[in-house]
Amino acid sequence: MSAITIVGFDTPAEEVDVTNLVPNRECLVEEATQAMRRRDWDQALLCWQELRFQFPNEIGGWLEAGRVLRGVRRFEEADELLAAAIVRFPQSSEPSILYSYCAQDRGEWDEAARRWAIVRSQFPEVRDAWRNNATVLREAGSREALDELLAAAVQHFPDDVQLAVEYASLPNLRRNWRESLGRLRRLRIQFANTADVLLAEAAILRHHLMGSDEAETLLMEVISRFPDDPRGFIDYAWTADHFGRGPEETLRRWRLAQNRFPEHPSILIGLVIALEANTLFTDADVVRAAAAAKFPDSLDIALDHARAAEKAGDLLNAAVRWEAVASRFPGYPGGFSGAGRALSEAGRFDEAEILVARGMLRFPNDPELFFNYASIAARRGDWQEAELRLIEAERRFPGNPLIATQLAETRLKIALAGSEGGPMPDGVKPAIGMDIERDLLMQFESLGCDCTFGFVQRKYGAEPLSLLRWAGIQANQLIDALKDRFEGVGCEENTEIREADPFGPFAQREYMSRDIRFAILSHTFVPISAHTDLAALRRQVCRRQRFLRDKLVQDLADAEKTFLYKDDGHGTPDEHVQEMYRLLQNYGANTLLYVCEANAKCLPGSATMVAPGLIYGYLDRSALLNYMNAEPAWLALCRRAYALRQAGGSIEA
After folding, report:
1. Element (H, E) at 213
2. What's the pLDDT score for residue 376?
3. CA nearest to 152, candidates 120, 105, 184, 181
4. E-strand spans in 441-585?
5. Dihedral, CA atoms, 212, 213, 218, 223, nearest 10 degrees?
6. Cβ distance 273 to 505 under 8 Å?
7. Do 374 and 508 reside in the same domain of the chain?
């Protein structure tokens, strides 16, 4: 027996068995488990590492240490540990799976695809390896490889509905919604005992084909046939909001879902949103507080709890809740971002910077944290420092549209604060080596009717400064504005500030500005807060609008861009289009691209020059009204319009 002698001051010497001083396996596992329940990740990691050192040939300590390292995003250490575990335990798939997840978590899609492919080859019966391999190939944009993988997957696992649905939905990537719908319908008999196929069909109808009645019929069938599946109830409730059935009907559907699943986190969040939409704020607060207490490990509920305080203007309480998110969910960067935003809006800039800087150290690959770090300097009014931080953020995350937009806005602020007679900035210039799509879309400027084309430009990194890019204006108001050279835009007597509703269930509400004379409704991108000085905001908005007004008039006089007006889906009268075109010629030899819905004679993607400087472009209805996933169609149309402007004639789809 191994022993040492311990001598006390007033006790006789005694021999103690050293093995009793070393924690045994059960004690280490129990201590690690308790530490994880307390979310004490450092202590949990210490225990799992000790278990690994004491029992190096047992896989448990290796896996749990790897999971903790992955959870706190210490990916380099996790990779090193798991690579060693793969060598030590070649018969187990679990180290390889965790190793692949680490690459996937940090967005290294090509490396993740390589790792998942190895897992599939060594452990072909691990279905998650096939599913995750498909996920990262889709994120990487590797469509051919994805098609090949899923074709093999459905052959290998003919009973796997998730893989079958994903394979059937591949035409969605080409915006061929009808083909996907047909392929899904052919799966109904094979997978009659699960709701997955019907839910996938309803999703396509809801999001892409405007099929409200058909989507709701499918979802009611899901609820009837699969009453124990909460997904049908959830989608049915969201569909009411999506198709504008009204707040009362939306609330009725969420109550129906809650009655069937009284303790489902996603349903409780939806119910809170519906209650607030019906101005039942007290009831919403009761449900929210109960959900936060009942589900402390639900990230979605924790986020809703923090956002509620921030939305109410209770910024310090919001900061506390966001810090709790950062502590309880160490793999989620948004806790640091939210706490930093709330603190900076409360004027506690130093605390905000310290907190966001901590997040940047933990999440060096998260662009939102670097964006928020720059935003803190902007809230201080230190635009030069904000610009420096955004330049560093753009260096780290080239092509990030949010950062590019904010950099353009910051440079505009600097220009406005300096000499009024200096050259006007035209947005963020393309970086060397960027692809030509951004250069192409910088040649176009939106004249309305909404923000759709602005989002298309953002997708490809084109961030021009423009009066109407983030605004809504109807054709008759645009005609009046063009006649009067936008006179009065940016004058305080013509400008009002109003609150806008969220664009989605979790979107942050913001202030909008409205030009009374021409009914131009513009985003300010300033979130609603009880601390906002509305008079100061109006002065700031007016100065910005005057600057952009003058820039637009100058751009019209230069006649170097193609000016784009998008139909709102109801059909713009041809005489309005002709009048816009005529007025544009008063400024210079301008080109107008009018984008409208395709028809039997004019196919989606086609473009026709109907007069010198007047081009009609055509898109299918879903692309015209919803930019999500429609950016390639818009880009192709802009290419055709640009070619027409250069050469004349027409180009068919």
Report:
1. helix 212-225
2. 92
3. 120
4. 444-446, 471-472, 495-499, 510-515, 520-527, 562-566
5. 90
6. yes
7. no
DSSP state at residue 422: S
610 and 531 within one domain? yes
Q: Judge whether 346 and 319 are in contact, CB under 8 Å.
A: yes
C-beta of residue 565 within 8 angstroms of C-beta of residue 592: yes
Name the pTM for this structure: 0.65
Residue 396, number of CB atoms within 10 A of its CB:
15
pLDDT tens digits, 168-216: 999 988 878 899 999 999 999 999 999 999 999 999 998 877 677 899 9
CA gap 448, 521 in Å, rounded: 11
Whether 388 and 487 share a structural domain: no
Count of CB atoms situated within 10 Å of the CB of 283: 15
In angstroms, the CA 612 to CA 593 distance is: 11
For residue 468, tell me if it sits in a domain.
Answer: yes
pLDDT over threshold 90, residue 581: yes
Q: Using alpha carbons only, give the angle 345, 349, 355 rounded to the nearest 5 degrees.
A: 100
Task: Record the tokens describing residue 23, joined without a space.
Answer: 């924690």
Closest CA to 498 of 543, 549, 532, 465: 532
Segment (H or E) for 395 = helix 383-396
Q: Which of 491, 481, 487, 620 is nearest to 563 (CA)?
A: 481
Dmax (CA) of the chain: 109
Sign, CA torsion 246/252/255/256:
negative
Strand order in the sheet with 495-499: 471-472, 520-527, 510-515, 495-499
Q: In this structure, what token pair is assigned to residue 228?
A: 């124990």
CA atoms of 566 and 638, how far apart (whole Å): 12
Two tokens, residue 264: 């489902």
Query: What is the extent of the structural domain holding 384?
Result: 368-419
Residue in the structure block whose two tokens are 């569909």: 239
Q: Which residue is it, tokens 């423009």?
A: 466
- Interatomic CA distance for residues 550 and 556, integer angstroms: 10
Q: Which residue has the tokens 């599939």?
A: 120
Q: CA triplet 134, 139, 145: central angle to 5 degrees?
A: 50
Residues 539 and 582 in one domain: yes
Please compute the mean of the pLDDT values over residues 482-496 and round it to a whole number.
94
Question: How many contiguous H segments (helices) and E segments (strands) does the chain have?
Answer: 30, 12
Distance CA 319, CA 356 (A): 12
